[in-house]
Each structure stands twice: as C-alpha cells, then as structure tokens.
Amino acid sequence: MEIFETKKELRQYLSSFRNEGKSIGFVPTMGALHEGHLSLLKEAKQENEIVVCSIFVNPVQFNNPTDLQHYPRDLEADIEKLNQVDCHVLFNPSEKEMYPEPATEKYDFGELENVMEGQHRPGHFNGVAIVVKRLFEIVEPERAYFGLKDYQQLVIIHRMTKDYNIPVEIVPCPIVREESGLAMSSRNERLTAAERTEAALIYQTLKMVKIKSGFNTIKEVNEYVMRQFKKHKHIKLEYFEIVDMYTLQPLQTWAQSNTVIACIAAWVGNVRLIDNIILFS
Ligand code: PAF
Question: CATH 3.40.50.620 in the chain, residues?
Fold first, then answer.
C-alpha cells in the first residue's frame, strides 16, 4: 500500500491511473478502523480498480472538544488492517495539510441539518461537508463509500454532491454489527465491557420498533422507546425520531411517508452512540 501525507503527492500518484482510465473508489474515514470500515473497503475493491482510504480526524466536525480529544487513534493498527484488505492507497494528511488556513466555508443543507445530529451537534455537518468536499477535490473518485449507520451524514453528503455538481457516485453500505447487535463504531472502543453489553439495548429497541411499526401508532412507538430507556439507568437516550428517509423530517403518522427510518442517539457512560433501522422503503 502506498501512503501519502500531502495532497500534491497523492494527486500526482492518482493522475497516472486516471489517465489510464482506471476507476478510483474512495473510503474517507477518521481511523480506528473496524469491520464496518473494512466492509466499505471490500465493496470499493469490488467496484473499482484503485481504492483510496483516507484517515483524518477532522477537528472542524467536533462540536465537543472532549470528544475530539478522546477520539481513538491507532495508525499502526489501521495500516495493518488496510494491508489485510489490500487497500491500494492511504491518504493520511496532517491538520496543516488539510487546513493551511482556518476553514471558513459555510454550507446550508436547510431542513436536512436542523434535526437529529444537526440539532444536537451544532456545526457538525458543516465540518463534515468542509472536509468531505476537500477530500473529493483531492482524490476525485468515481465512487465514494459511506456506511448507513451515519444515515443523516450520508443524506447530507449526497445532497452536497448534487448542490455542487461533484461528479461522484455516493454508495451507501449496510451497517455492520457486533454479535450483540451493537452497530460497529470507532467509539465502541471507549466502552467498558459492561457498557458494551448494555449498549446492545439500542439495537434491541430498534428491532422492536420495526415490529411495532406494523401495529402501533408513531406516538405509541415513541412512548415504548422512552419506557425502554427509562428502565436502563446507564444509558441516556438523547433522541429517538421516526423520519422520512429523504427529507429527514419527523413524522406524526405512518400515512405521511412510504420511506421511513427510525434514528436514535444515546449516551452509554461517556460515549455517544448512534444507530438506525429502516422501517419502510
Ligand atoms: O464518518 C466519518 O468517519 C467522518 O464523518 C468522515 C466522513 C470521514 C468525515 O470526516
């Protein structure tokens, strides 16, 4: 695997492949790679001749400095995992390389960013858009791969590519789960063994929500979720929303949409986790 730390060198390296008409697949990450990331890379390898992974813990998308400080980092272990899946290129820029000047871009994703993660993490999606757009401009991939776990991020990045005519296909990839059902996340590394067991409640609840969506009203489902989380003292529900998959706007009745997803964020100890389940599509 080739490793680059500068935009210039990476661009130069990729241009020869681009000139030969080879397709480039891109998996942007913040490192602490797990099976979820590896599944994106495997998918990218199947569909492209060259696969680029980036590892960059993007400071401008963290609204909480403690979260940034504690974000897990282990470049050596990441490189080993990337080699195992035969990733061709790693782009591992420094903060100075990505942000030689403080980033000032402002994006407006309207109603998509005023709910759920956007509401609870002010500025988060602006920071995500800043880095992803810059990375797209450096790598110029045909396809870019994103996990469904960060569903709102996926919708917003897709919107950004449309708003700015960025010629990249956004490829959504399924959530990869631990045996307990807990969605794989770099943040899981920060859970204690007991917290990891407790965190399984999140997906257990979502599975019940899917069953209940055939029988109960949205109000009843919401009340069920509140009750579940009240019973578990070590998990704090931040939000649970049943929303339209495309507008991300909360629904009051099932009749309001045929494409429906339930999204959740919860704190397990000091760790904030998100997950979701598609109810109708
Ligand atoms: O999902 C992530 O890991 C990050 O938000 C991303 C897309 C790599 C941007 O920093």
Answer: 2-173
Q: What per-residue confidence (pLDDT) applies to 233?
A: 87
DSSP the chain: -EEE-SHHHHHHHHHHHHHTT--EEEEEE-S---HHHHHHHHHHHHH-SEEEEEE---GGG-S-HHHHHHS---HHHHHHHHHHTT--EEE---HHHH-SS--------GGGGSSHHHHHSTTHHHHHHHHHHHHHHHH--SEEEEEGGGHHHHHHHHHHHHHTT---EEEEEPPPB-TTSPBP-GGGGGS-HHHHHHHHHHHHHHHHHHHHTTTS-HHHHHHHHHHHHHH-TTEEEEEEEEEETTT--B-SSGGG-SSEEEEEEEEETTEEEEEEEEEE-
* 0.85 exceeded by pTM: yes
> Which of 41, 58, 107, 117 to mutate for ligand 1's pocket (most ligand atoms within 8 Å of CB)?
58
Looking at the domain covering 186-276, what would its CATH class be? alpha beta
Tens-digit pLDDT profile for residues 125-170 = 999 999 999 999 999 999 999 999 999 999 999 999 999 999 999 9
157 CA: nearest ligand 1 atom: 7
Please, where in the chain does CATH 3.30.1300.10 lie?
186-276
Instruction: Tell me if residue 37 is catalytic.
Output: yes
Residues with CB under 6 A from ligand 1: 28-30, 58, 61, 128, 131-132, 150, 153
Q: What CATH fold (topology level) applies to the domain 2-173?
A: Rossmann fold (3.40.50)
Q: What is the mean pLDDT of the chain?
A: 97
